[in-house]
């Protein structure tokens, strides 16, 4: 999937659909150990999140229905992207991914929860020990 | 007819959404299991078929014929082989079996379990392709063990046996389902379980970046830095170090660790083992 300037003209529904498509492709890339592909998709994921955030009223909330998506990568991405706007629901989604042992995502889900709990990661701020370094 | 449909629609509409979703999820799993069942039947497997009990000599554990129910009766002739030189009978070669742990108490919240991965009836032809099938199944089984009853897990195992071409990957599948172990245990396993197939030796602090950072080999390959873990999970950890991650501001964990101390690398390495469900 190639996402660029056309994202600006996409509707919220289209952006959410693209968000799902990226998550599904990431899931496949992880299974097949296509690391370069996964990393390209990660940049798409981050770009869509940023676009949703920039829309009036912070449209990251539009990702809420994805908390019930059948694919764990899509659910995890949605939870990561909404930690600042829907914190409780996002954390609950991450906890569930871990409890259901949905590896490989389960590992990052619990890792993110621990980072937040220990104050190493602040939603919308990022990793605390990286501030001022980038 | 039309009235009947209308009544059914009304009943469905009267049910809470969660109940309907649960029913749909149940049907999906049933369909998936039936699909697997057809594979096992094709290969002549029936997990319910009685076996010769332990201690029945060389037929121990082998299927018994349907009609015969007497215990210890040799109703499947073994291979016609000459006794070994010392006079003891030779044990026939074991048929490869996939040994899976018993399902534990899982978590039933959230969306339904994903359907089992595709299981091609024909051998995909290369080890890479076979490995891909085996790895997907290992991860699916890891999820399914907490959610499906034992008989469905057993059926999935029989299907994996039935296709034949995955036999060489049973060790990798079995070890991928290992429960977490204490750190000392994983360290001791480096030597104690050196002949355990389906496992790899893993460096808690990544080897190559540590070498580049100038750490001595005595530390990198030291007892404290080595653990033995399941191969598929080891591959996953290696991949994790090189994939972009929101937790590290979009950087890869490897890039995040560049220039950081041995202690910090070690701490993150241990955390990852814990997060992957390998370390208690």
Please count the helical segments of chain A. Answer: 5
Number of domains of chain A: 1
Question: Which parts of chain A are unreliable, with pLDDT below 50 for 5 consecutive residues or more?
Answer: none
- Spatial order of strands in the largest sheet of chain B: 1-2
CATH topology of chain A: the name is Serine Threonine Protein Phosphatase 5, Tetratricopeptide repeat
Uncertain residue segments of chain B: 6-12, 70-79
Whole-number radius of gyration of chain B?
25 Å
Please give the CATH class of chain A.
Answer: Mainly Alpha
Spatial gap, N to C terminus of chain B: 59 Å
The percent range for helix content of chain B is 40-55%
Strand content of chain B: under 5%
* Broad structural category of chain A: mainly alpha
Give the number of helices of chain B: 11
Largest interface: A-B, 38 and 38 residues
Give average pLDDT of chain A, whole number. Answer: 94
Q: Level of helix content of chain A? A: 55-70%
Largest sheet of chain A: 2 strands, antiparallel
User: What is the strand tally of chain A?
Assistant: 2
CATH-scheme architecture of chain A? Alpha Horseshoe
| Strands of chain B, count | 2
